Amino acid sequence: MSLLKVEGLSKHYEGRDGIFDRITGREKTVVRAVNDIDLTVEKGEILGLIGESGCGKSTLGRAILRLHEPTKGRVTFDGAEVTALDPAQMKAMRRRMQIIFQDPYASLNPRRTVAEIVGLPLRLHGLAKTDAEAREKVAAICARVGLKPGQLDRYPHQFSGGQRQRIGIARALVSHPEFIVCDEPVSALDVSIQAQIIALLLELKREMGLTYLFISHDISVIGYLADRVAVMYLGEIVEMGPVEEVLANPRHPYTQSLMSAVPEVDHAGRRKRVRLTGDLPSPLRPPSGCKFHTRCPLATDACGKIVPKTETVGPGHTAACLRLAENLSLLEEVPA
Ligand SMILES: Nc1ncnc2c1ncn2[C@@H]1O[C@H](COP(=O)(O)OP(=O)(O)OP(=O)(O)O)[C@@H](O)[C@H]1O
């Protein structure tokens, strides 16, 4: 049994002009941020979730945790249907499923000390009987993530970006969760600090037996740490599979275009850069047929009309593209 199972999960937001629509009596606009997603995450695994900004990665992560209530679909964690839990049961489940945010500063209360911020989940879940016990637990996890005892009574603004992310990690881990959504946890950090935080997250995963859904727009980060990868485009998963397999043999033209942007250092030839035309279409009015067809260099007329089914293309490897059978690739090597 998978630790996490997501079935048909959708999250639609009322469009930003929702109030205007109500006043004018116009039909409501709907932002289809996440559409009918199926995925599983095994215990101890890192599933990487990749896609460009605005494709719905954060929304999916938050819908799984019910931080944003899903519009439709089911989430099951360790056999319990998360999407059917009542508020009291959901509160208990939150101890087990946590999130680390991209921007540690925005997610840390500026008026609270590190000890208060990291100690809050202990209070919420009744995990410490006395203040002294809470302080001890906070000190232990803070030490583990690399904060010094003398820093516990300081405020977030007194820390660097990397240290703030360590505070965010300590807060997520203090309640001993089993599953963490890591929502672009290193994207806001300097490159030199990114490697330290990634190393820390990998060590903690091993020591605490954690399972991660790791969201990133950086394919090299995903290639480095994930076991499997799911590629997202405009609210849907277009390709998924073991990370080495998907990166070595990307089958969806969108995955291929993401891959073509990665510099190859140890290659005799270099890859032809695939330039996608246009921006990511708005999830307010997603294209018909295959949602990628408006930017896909391989699109035919049929792609604008027919929604491609997800097909198995290798062991554990799936993709959704009408032209899969033709085995086309945008990634021809060009001579150095
Ligand atoms: N609360 C909201 N109300 C309306 N639309 C929203 C809301 N939150 C997100 N969206 C829209 O949903 C879509 C997906 O956003 P989301 O933040 O999940 O994407 P993302 O892939 O995580 O992007 P980024 O990497 O920039 O965070 C976007 O078009 C966004 O504008």
Automatic annotation (TrEMBL):
InterPro entries: AAA+_ATPase, ABC_transp_ATP-bind, ABC_transporter-like_ATP-bd, ABC_transporter-like_CS, Oligopep_ABC_C, P-loop_NTPase. Residues 4-259 form the ABC transporter domain. Gene3D superfamilies: P-loop containing nucleotide triphosphate hydrolases (3.40.50.300). The keyword DNA-binding does not apply. It is a peripheral membrane protein. It is found in: Cell inner membrane. It holds the Pfam family ABC_tran. GO terms for molecular function: ATP binding. Keywords: ATP-binding, Nucleotide-binding, Transport. Belongs to the ABC transporter superfamily. NCBIfam families: oligo_HPY (TIGR01727). This is ATP-binding cassette domain-containing protein. It comes from Rhodobacter flavimaris.
